[in-house]
Each structure stands twice: as C-alpha cells, then as structure tokens.
Write a structure and sequence with these properties.
This protein is 9% helix and 46% strand. The chain contains 2 helices and 10 strands; from the N terminus they run E-E-E-E-E-E-E-E-E-E-H-H. The strands form 2 sheets. Strands 4, 5, 7, 8, 9 and 10 form a 6-stranded antiparallel sheet that branches. Strands 1, 2, 3 and 6 form a 4-stranded antiparallel sheet that branches.
Length: 169
Amino acid sequence: MSTGWQVVEIGGANANVLVNQPPRITAQITPLDDDAHNLTSDGWYYVATAHWSATDPEGETVTVGIDADRDGTIDLNLNTAEGFSWIELDWNVSVHVERIELEGERFLHMYRIFDVTAEDASGATSTISVISPAMDSQLMRSLYDSNDEDDITFYFPGTPQADIDWLTA
C-alpha cells in the first residue's frame, strides 16, 4: 500500500532530483587615470580595467558580461569566464551621487555601480553589483565640494540639480 510519499534526494551522488546551480562570480572594475577617459565623436567613455572570475559548480561553460546601466541587459560581453580587460563604457550611465557632511563642510561623493552577470550553458545566472570610483582610482578623488561645481556639471551632467543646490547652499 502506498502512502503517497516519495523520498527525494537533492544533490549528491545518489540524487534523484538534479538542480542546476548558478555560477559563482567575483569582479572588480577600476577606472584608469582621469586623463585616460576617451572622448569620441559619440561622446565620453569611461575607461577602466576589469578583473573577473566566474565558475560553474557543475563545470558547465560560463559567459560573463557587464550591465553598465543596470537595466537587466548586458552592455559589454567579456571574452572569457575568467580574465582581465581594458573596458570602455558609456560615460553617463551608472553614476550615483551621495551627500556627505563632515565637520560642517558639504561634499558630493560620486561613484558608479555596475552589474556583472554570469550565465552557465543551462541558463542559470548570477549577478553581482560592483562599486567603482566615478572617475579616478586615487583616494578621495570621488569627493567634490562647492568649489567643484563647474567640474561636477561638466564631468557628470546627469547630476541632479537638487544635489548641486545642496552642495552650494
């Protein structure tokens, strides 16, 4: 007589249910010196180095890409599952602004967030968000004070006016 129950073993050598696990991924995106960003006839490009590593627990082939504007679509495919590359991405995407007040002085902190996605041959995906300086890898170069208003509006034209007004108040 059947009780209607079935033992299900997930994973392992005797598994009767196979689960495709998504790839594991790590990545780093670091801008080059601010003099290295590229001005073309199509506008400015953010030039950076990218390091990444994506491996699949089941050993399947993995593809990796960067979603620069975080809209769920890969903007730049990387050529291997693990590697290093110089990359160029549209300048005005992915810039984030935070207000900081230290000892009575106001600053805008500019940084970028990119999503890096890995997909295995069976379609399982994983995505991580990578935080990167907005323009230069040097310490404190991503902080702007009220004296930098012209630089902010030139280099980061998408900066909300409310943030600039707060900075210069």
